[in-house]
Each structure stands twice: as structure tokens, then as C-alpha cells.
Amino acid sequence: MSGYVRDTLRGVTSPNRVTWSLWAVEGVLAFVVEVQQHVGLASLMTLTMGFVPFVVVAATLRTSHRAWKIGKFDIFCGVVSVLGLVFWFFINEPTVALISFVAADQIAALPTLRKSWLAPSSESARAFFFGFANCAVTLMTLKHFTTAGVLFPGCILFTDLTIGILVVSNVGPRLRGDQRLISTPRVA
Questions:
Q1: How many other β-carbons are positioned within 10 Å of the β-carbon of residue 71?
Q2: pLDDT tens track for 154-163
Q3: How many Å apart are CA 120 and CA 122, to the nearest integer?
Q4: Residues 62/43, Cβ–Cβ less than 8 Å
Q5: pLDDT digit string (tens) for 91-105?
Q6: pLDDT, position 71
Q7: Measured distance CA(104)–CA(169) in Å, rounded
Q8: What SS3 class is residue 66?
Q9: Long-range contacts made by residues 63-69, C-beta under 8 angstroms, separation at least 24?
């Protein structure tokens, strides 16, 4: 992730602050739920998935480069994602909370998925492929496959792989015929 932060500070990558802010909050809260569910060592991945986005958001605030413009879609996804967190607060049931977090996390990812489709050159695939690998290793460390242990890393695995592929393949601009947005993907 240090490469993603470096790319952000250099203005090479333009993280969506809505997505990354919500990923930070949701990751830390999901870690708490996983600890309550006795997930074990695999919950450290979830803690990391909450801490790293805080660093990314801090980098977007520190750089003088222009951040990704937040639009109505981003705000809508942010509100729905926050509602998922509010739902958890009132339910206070660990498994339901984890499901609520994962739903909120996936909704929070939509602005970055959309951005990766529309402007893949504004992202660095490396971070998402590392996230995919991190989740795959985490899933392999589980001794017992439970909802609490599999749900969060499993969904992140799928989302990170999808974003990475969208960035590397430039499929959005290619299908739209937008040659100016097709660029050499930054994986390394």
C-alpha cells in the first residue's frame, strides 16, 4: 500500500475519498465484530483493511494534486453505506453487524468501481491486486469456514480483483471507444 500512498502524493492516483473514508471506518468496525466472533488471526487482515484507507485519505488531504471529484453518485453511495452502519448500531447482533458492514463496504466500493470503469488511468491496479492476494492468503489461513471468517475477506477479494482488472484492461474506455482514456496500466 505504500506504493498507492506514494502514487496519491505524486498525483498519479486519485483515490475516491468517499470510498476510502468509508473503507477505513468499516474496516475497523468489522475488525471489532470479528474479534467478538473469535475469528482469530485472520481478523488482523480486516484491521489492516481499515487502517490503510485512513493513510490513503490522509495522503489525499496532504497532496496539492487535485483529488477525484465527488459527485451525486458518490454521495448517494456514501449515505447508503453509512445507513448500513447505523443499522448495525441499532441491531447490535454480531453476525448481522458483519453482514451489514460487508453490504456497506460493497456499496462504499461502488464509486471506485465506477471510477475504474470510467477513468482507469486515475487508479493504480497494484494496490487492488495486493488486496486480492492478501484476502486470498487470509482465507487460506482459516481453519473453519464461518460467515464471520469468510464474508468480509471474500467480498474484498472479489471487489479488489474486479477493480484491478478494470484498471489493467481499460475495458470501460475501450467499450465506449474513448481512446484518450486508454493508457498503459500502472501495475508495478
A1: 12
A2: 998 999 999 9
A3: 5
A4: no
A5: 867 778 778 878 888
A6: 92
A7: 27
A8: coil
A9: 63/8, 63/9, 63/10, 63/11, 65/8, 65/9, 65/10, 65/11, 65/14, 66/11, 66/14, 67/14, 67/15, 67/17, 68/14, 68/15, 68/16, 68/17, 68/115, 68/122
Could you tell me the end-to-end alpha-carbon distance of the chain, in angstroms, rounded to an integer?
A: 12
Query: What DSSP letter does each residue of 130-175 carry, written as one string?
Result: HHHHHHHHHHHH-SS--HHHHHHHHHHHHHHHHHHHHHHH-HHHHH
Residue 140 cell numbers, joined: 487460506
Residue with cell 484518450: 180
Amino acid making up residue 39: V
**C-alpha grid cell for residue 67?**
483529488
Q: 10 Å Cβ neighbour count for 31?
A: 22
Domain ranges in the chain are 2-181
